[in-house]
Amino acid sequence: MTDTAAPGARPEDHAPLIVIDTVEGYRAAVAEIAAGEGPIAIDAERASGFRYSQRAYLIQVFRRGAGVYLFDPPAIGDFSELQAAIGEEEWVLHAASQDLACLREVGLDPVRIFDTELGARLAGLPRVGLGTVVEQLLGIHLAKEHSAADWSTRPLPQSWLVYAALDVELLPDLRDAVADLLEAGGKLDYAEQEFQATLAKEAPVRTDPWRRLSGIHSIRSPRSLAVAKALWEARDAYAQEVDTAPGRLVPDGSLVAAAKALPPTKRDLAGIKEFVGRASRSQLDRWFAAIETGLAATETPSLRAPGDAGPPPPRIWSDRDPEADRRLKKARAGITVISEHVSIPVENLLTPELLRRLAWTPPENADRDAIAAALAGLGARAWQIDATAQVIADAFVEARQVDAESPDAAS
């Protein structure tokens, strides 16, 4: 295994690259990509942690027989011509769920994908980061030093462009290597079902997103919680206005500290040592106005976040419903055995939240067919049902028998 296992494996080995940022260049690239052969390798770079939006600031495409193309999405805008040229082909992505939203935002929406990260998980590889999988399966060392860069930077440094190009140039070969592992393990059908589920999955709609403030659970006063909510909303609005990641303006900890302190004046707010950040003083009027809004709110939020009618936390099941607790523990143990036997992570074999919902509210007749129907209703794929339904049914029956044989039941 060596850094020079393939041409272009190192940045210094790669030919100079340009970013396509004109309509003419884009259309010429689309024609060349359409004339290529095989699947479409695609990736996107965002500016997470720097910008408010999760838009793509660079889109990389590679196809055998065509080459690698780096597109500037803000400059090009509409990718409908590229979509028309490649929309029916298989697209190869690594961790597709991370990129699909920003690709769809510019009109790029696949109908078939091969996710090399998800495929590697199902194949049983212990580590599935792109660099690790490429090194293990292709024998190429892939540097990842620019993964957290600010891709909204213009112009983009050449070393960043080479990094971005390598991310897609190796994907078709990686796709084939992962597919070989899956086929050898009898898991290719599992992977195809998971890939389609990834495409069909809708982005969750978050209720009360302000409750995701880091440290908010330390707030014990409803009034302080109202202030935290108002501060989060003010920061979010300003972050969107200036297209900057909210935490770069004022960190979560600063908002929580201000919400706890409830400063009566702007001077007092400025005097809170934890209230820091690049916009903590330049936008002091904005933050103090939010505090006043929270203090004046006629209704304060509940200290407990509203639930979604799902099961309670498993840690209290033994008190609330001992049989449900036994169902969950026995089913988990059975699924863990299957996971180890087939070399598929437990969370991919069956989503933990799905199992919790099923264990908390099982079908009345918990036989294999009833469990299978319940799993399907909760969104499990056919291969997951085939692998786990009988084990879950057996676990639920065993949990019920333990309950029936207990001294309390006999009395």
UniProtKB/TrEMBL annotation:
Alphabetized UniProt keyword annotations: Hydrolase
Name by which UniProt lists this protein: Ribonuclease D
Pfam families, sorted: DNA_pol_A_exo1, DNA_pol_A_exoN, HRDC
GO molecular function ontology, one term from the record: nucleic acid binding
Domain HRDC: 221-301
Known EC number: 3.1.13.5
InterPro entries found in the cross-reference section: 3'-5'_exonuclease_dom, Exo_C, HRDC-like_sf, HRDC_dom, HRDC_dom_sf, RNase_D-like, RNaseH-like_sf, RNaseH_sf
PROSITE patterns: HRDC
Transmembrane spans: none
GO BP annotations listed: nucleobase-containing compound metabolic process
Region span, Disordered: 299-321
